[in-house]
Structures are given as structure tokens and as C-alpha cells.
Amino acid sequence: MTSQRMPGGRSGVRQASLRSQNLALVLGEIYEATRPTTRARVAAALDITRATASDLVERLVDADLVDELAPEAATTPGRPGVVVAPSSDGVAALGLEIQVDHLTAQVLALDGTVLGRAQAPGDHRDSDPRRVTRELARLAGRALETLPTRTRLLGACVSVPALLRSGGSVVQLAPNLGWTDVDLAALLDRQAPLTGIRVEVGNDADLSALAETRARSRADGSPRGEQSFLYLAGEVGIGGAVVIGGETTRGRHGWSGEIGHVVVDRSGPRCACGATGCLEQYAGLDVIRRRAGLGLGATPADLLTRVPRGVRAGRALGWAAEAIGVAVASTLNIVDVDRVVLGGVYAELFDHLAAGIEAEVAQRVLAARWAPVAVERAVAGPGSAVTGAALRVLERVVADPASFIEAGA
């Protein structure tokens, strides 16, 4: 049988693919813009015609992915451009967070607007995953109560301090939670209101680093691709992430960044992971609290109030800073970045940690003489992990809006 070529078949596929790529480029340009933008600016940035840019923006507006705002104030002759921005309520993602001492649910719109949030303190050390996921689902329901009826929920992502295989939903090991081989997505799918919602699972430090990368880009106006740093997420456990060119380096299995288990002293105390002398046993929040003479419920603010009044709190922070500096220096001798960003509770304790970390890094990093390392406070603020969880879902749509539009057609 002689095959017949359909008129325009291959050409039509190429054209559709090109339109999909251009749609993603336009939405990406609007999403990443650090100042108000217009169709004309989008066209200029992407080197496409204004007519093409206008047509693509119109498709994104119709899909509730982009909002048209008030025109800019005229500064030159001619009609002022209409400002376009990521949608404030057309689509949203649900970020979920499991930490040793709290659970959080947050609904985030594409423009960064928080549409709903709920949080609950708790002690989840050596906890039952079923109980924790039931409570997390309850918080998700509360956060979703205020979701506008027109808003389309894209999915959910849960942040957890754990080893996770790339692309999977199974917590292989979460030492501080006492979990091994727990399928979080499967557990959450059994809980209303999450039944039927696609749930991803991510490492807390990786997701915090994602939120930090976006926050830094928006704060200083630099492209996200220019962001490179070592991120430390200080909590009861200590997570880390290496960001190179705006992308988190996750390694072959997705396990990179476990700086909390870098050995500071092989003869040191036993860690929840089973090894001895891990950084977490010197600079984890529980250890700092204990050395400062505080209970497990004490907050970083409680710790800071103790510093001027007593020696123990200051010493506890000094020991933590020294240990962090040793672990960070070892990491920087392998990973070529010249910025260290302190997030989580370390951001709150920054003024009492930074100098000690800098001293160790200056002494121990081989290249510090030629490329001094800056130690900086995270700018993403509290809740960076749950924000990063929602961003992971949202940015999948930014990368491929055509599939989203076709699915909703």
C-alpha cells in the first residue's frame, strides 16, 4: 500500500510545536519580569513581532494565566502600553510543608499572591505518617476554603526534610521524623480534600532554594540565571542546596545537598541518621536550644532574648557557627560558588552566626583569598519551603502553558 502524505502534516506539527514554544517563552518572560511589562517589551525581549506577541498574550489572558492591568502612564507620544502580569487568581497551586515542629498549607497564585494559608505547631519526631498526613490534609482544607471559585487548582507539592528519589513520591529516609519508605502522595490521596489532586513531593531545602532564587531575582532585578549560591536551611535538621545558574543541582538520584550530615567530628555524638559527628548534632535547632538551657518549644526569638542576659546562649550560637563554618568550607572546596545563604531559623539567628561562619570559611576555603565568600541572610522570608512547594507546581505550567490550555479546552 502506498502511503499518502497528509497535506501540511509534518509542517503543521512543526508550526504547532513552534507556537507552543513561543507561548512558553512569552509566559516565561512575563512571569520572570522584575518590573511591569507590556506586549511591546515582551516582543522586544524575545525578538518577535508585536503582532505575534499580542496574539500569544491574548491566548494567555483567555486561559487565565495572564492579567491585563491598567495602562502605563504615558511618557512618550502615542498610546500607552497595557501592563501584563501573571494572573492573580486564575490559577493556583497548593504548597504543603511537613517539619519536625510544624505543618503548613498555603495556596499561591501565579503572581505570588497568597490566596489561603493555615499552619499548626506540633512535635513530629518519630511520628506516625498517617496521623501527620491526616492533620496536613485538614490544614489543606482550611487553606483552600478561601480559594476564589474561578481559580483553577493546578496541583499540590509537599515539602519534607527527607531523602527522596528524583521524580518520586516516596520518602526513603527522614531521620528526624523517624520515617522510612513512606509514599506520601499515596497517603495524601486518601485524605479529603486532596483525593484526586496530583501531589508531588520535594526536599525542603531544594524547595526553599527555589523560593530564594526567585525572591533574590525579584529583589535585585537580576535574571534568575545569574543566581549561584550554597543554601542552608536551618531547622531541627539542616538541609542544603547548591544553586548554579538559577537551577538547583540535585545529583543523579536527587539526594545532593544533605549538608546536615557532613561530618564535623567523627568522634562526635550519634545522629538520628545513625552516623556520628554530623553537623546537625552541633548546629541543629534542638542542639542549640539544649546548649542554651532552653526547652524544645523555645523559639529563635526566645533564644535571642537570652543572648544579652547569659553566657550559655551566646556560647551555643558560637559553637553552632563554628561547626557550620567547618561544614560549609568543606562543601565550598568542592562546589565553586562564592555566596552562602542562611535560611530557615538561621536567617533569624543570622546576626549571631554570620561572623563565626565567615571566619571558618576564610581560613578553610582554598580559593577564598582570590574569591572571598559572602555569607548572606535569606530574603525569601519565613515559609520559604511551602512557597517553593507551590512554585514547583506553578512553574510546570509556566514551562508548558500549551498543554495546560489544551487540557482545559
Report on the structure:
With 409 residues, this protein is an alpha/beta fold. The protein has three domains: 10-86, Arc Repressor Mutant, subunit A (Orthogonal Bundle), CATH 1.10.10.10; 91-206 and 385-408, ATPase, nucleotide binding domain (Nucleotidyltransferase, domain 5, 2-Layer Sandwich), CATH 3.30.420; 228-378, Nucleotidyltransferase, domain 5, CATH 3.30.420.40. Helices cover 41% and strands 22% of the residues. The protein contains 14 helices and 16 strands. It has helices at 9-32, 39-46, 50-62, 129-144, 184-189, 204-220, 280-283, 285-291, 300-306, 311-332, 345-348, 350-364, 384-399, 401-408; strands at residues 37-38, 66-71, 82-86, 91-99, 102-109, 114-121, 152-160, 163-164, 170-174, 179-183, 199-203, 229-234, 238-244, 247-249, 339-344, 374-377. The strands form four sheets. The protein has a five-stranded mixed beta sheet with strand order 6-5-4-7-11, with helices on both faces. The protein has a five-stranded mixed beta sheet with strand order 14-13-12-15-16, with helices on both faces. Helix 13 crosses helix 14. It is globular and about 65 Å long. Mean pLDDT is 92; it is low at 1-9. It comes from Terracoccus luteus. InterPro entries: ATPase_NBD, ROK, WH-like_DNA-bd_sf, WH_DNA-bd_sf. Belongs to the ROK (NagC/XylR) family. Keywords: Kinase, Transferase. It holds the Pfam family ROK.
